[in-house]
Amino acid sequence: MKLQLALLERAARENRVGHLLLFHGGSALHQREVALRLAQILNCPDAGSEGPCQECPTCRKILSGNHPDVSWLKPLKATIGIEQVLAWQEKAYLKHYEGDYKVSVIEQADTLTLPAANSLLKVIEEPPERTVIILCAENAEGILPTIQSRAQLVFFPNLSEETWLRGLAGMDEQEAVLAFRLSGKNQNLAADVLQHGVLWLQEWVGKFRTAVEEEDFLRLFALFPMDKNQALLCLQVMAVQAQEGIKNSATRPYEFLAIGKAINVLRQQANPRLVIEVLALELFQQGGARYD
């Protein structure tokens, strides 16, 4: 990984970097840090073999998110839609304001809808001059094959728990450790758990389990309101727990499959309350759930 990033930075310093990079795997936080560093190298007037200077106005603007030629695009809800990409597309073709390169970073690019991905492809096929597009994704397989084939792929291995924790400046370490373990060591999921709150998530999952164990539909009312991202987060953590429970013979495979089905349905723009209630009813019909 270090060699690959070193070669990428060298290409950036020598103005040989490809116009489309696809970061996949590992931690979204690590991908974001590398994207920021590349944007700085491409635009810093004093960038050298050690990287950007980090002191000039350009470096400071990029780091603070205020550079006019460095943009970030991420899902407004559960996906990146066509409207977001069309708005970004207009900006992509504008002239450079003050930087040598325009850098566009698209986070969670594997959540692009098909129309959005096709719209993005048009820009990739006819890229603006001195523009670098960086796609960040947990899973490269979630990216349209026609986009993958045009990108330089950069794989990020998973960080160790210790390394991941070091990157969380200012966070409560005990809470971060718990989030990491609740996520099944999935660093991106752990970051989402921290963002929404470990205590809130544990309470929500506990209430859902109680409702299912007691087959009490009325108890589900206390779980709402919640938005789609919150529902998706809870279901993903429940899927991790169910998967671990199967290994210990504490959970039936059906429960893991039912939760996986609910996650897929929710990602297709379904109503989160309806998805949660249907999942609970399916588990009721199977005689509740086991969480031994």
What's the short story on this structure?
With 292 residues, this protein is an alpha/beta fold. The chain contains 13 helices and 5 strands. The chain has a 5-stranded parallel β-sheet with strand order 2-3-4-1-5, sandwiched between helices.
Shape: elongated
Helix and strand run: HEHHEHEHEHEHHHHHHH
Beta content comes to 5-15%
Major sheet size, sense and barrel closure: 5 strands, parallel
Low-pLDDT ranges: none
Structural class: alpha/beta
* Helix fraction bin: 40-55%
Mean pLDDT: 89
Put simply, the count of helices is 13
Rg over CA atoms, rounded to whole Å, is 21 Å
Number of strands: 5
Distance between the termini: 40 Å
Order of strands side by side in the largest beta sheet? Answer: 2-3-4-1-5
Describe the structure.
The chain is of the alpha/beta class and 292 residues long. Helix content is 53%, strand content 9%. It has 13 helices and five strands. The chain has helices at 2-13, 28-43, 57-64, 82-92, 114-125, 145-148, 161-166, 173-182, 187-196, 198-213, 228-247, 253-267, 272-285; strands at residues 20-24, 70-73, 102-106, 131-137, 152-155. The protein has a five-stranded parallel β-sheet with strand order 2-3-4-1-5, with helices on both faces. The chain starts with a helix and ends in a 7-residue tail after the last helix. 36% of the residues are buried.
